[in-house]
Amino acid sequence: MHGTPRPPATPAQALAAMDHLIAAHLIGQQELARRLGLNVTDLTCFAFVLEAGDELLTAGDLAARAHVTTGAVTGILNRLERAGYVTRRPDPADRRRVRVAAVQDAVARVEAVYAGHYKRLNALFSDYSPEELAIITDWFTRATALAHEYLEKLNRNDPDEEC
Amino acid sequence: MHGTPRPPATPAQALAAMDHLIAAHLIGQQELARRLGLNVTDLTCFAFVLEAGDELLTAGDLAARAHVTTGAVTGILNRLERAGYVTRRPDPADRRRVRVAAVQDAVARVEAVYAGHYKRLNALFSDYSPEELAIITDWFTRATALAHEYLEKLNRNDPDEEC
DNA sequence: CGCAATCCCTTAGTTCGTGAGATATTCGGA
DNA sequence: TCCGAATATCTCACGAACTAAGGGATTGCG
């Protein structure tokens, strides 16, 4: 598909396309979580744990990223731990903290479930030239920055103010 | 930003960017719903109602689109109706059916809350040339098609098979 | 050293979804 | 025309998961 001309698009069309993708992705997440014996929140938190890598997250970090209370995190970790996805580890430097480590087996289990879709997505990506990919990634990066900026605005302002 | 060269990206980077965007979007949806006195499910359903326009959806249509049971839709419609977002209307052709119509005032209320973010997103989109936008929209469209294809695979197959 | 702050957990209460089944309506075939 | 099956929505009981409030342990600053 490299170099193939595409019909130009308007911002409105792009917005609509984006909404549809997000909606589809959400349903997919639910289904994936179900197959892993988790709910969407738990799966999302496990993804945060994986993303953090060796810099093990604390329970509080998870609460902040997932935007839930620390009480909820207790439940999330209980479920993830019981299902064999993570383990709680003491923090040697601060005994109030709980560090969350991913279980290696579970990583493979999750990757197996994601594999099919990721393979297809990768195929889709490799159907674009590096220059085209750069445009797409650039857009994602900027859109995400925008979304975060928006979130901060929402959290700062009175609950009824326009943002 | 037209024509400005950007660093090339790999599929993996693009995938990560996509995940982050969707995660941020989800949190944003929660906050927006909260401001409208709704939960995310209800807001999503209201969006489906708006998207359908004059072709009023039935309660069953909503259940299918939101992937919830018809029992849940009853609750969703009760909440949306009580909060003044929609009204239930009899279907003249089939008295078993319930048609869902958006309340005009509520449309404006929702648009006001969305306005800020949508304006910013639009600004972002209009920062790209039509050709660049075409690439982005094309990618969204194809990624959505992929996601739907994946969903169908998931729904068809045994719950444990690879897809 | 002592007190406030921090971190995670516990508990009670609420909300929302599912699954099973009830009720009302429509449709198709004898 | 009539009756049984299918369809559409609603009701109810129950369970899962979140919040808010507060408790106990630990830390760190004055």
UniProtKB/TrEMBL annotation, chains A, B:
It comes from the Bacteria. PROSITE patterns: HTH_MARR_2. InterPro entries: HTH_MarR-typ, MarR/SlyA-like, WH-like_DNA-bd_sf, WH_DNA-bd_sf. Residues 1-145 form the HTH marR-type domain. This is MarR family transcriptional regulator. The lineage of its organism: Bacteria, Bacillati, Actinomycetota, Actinomycetes, Kitasatosporales.
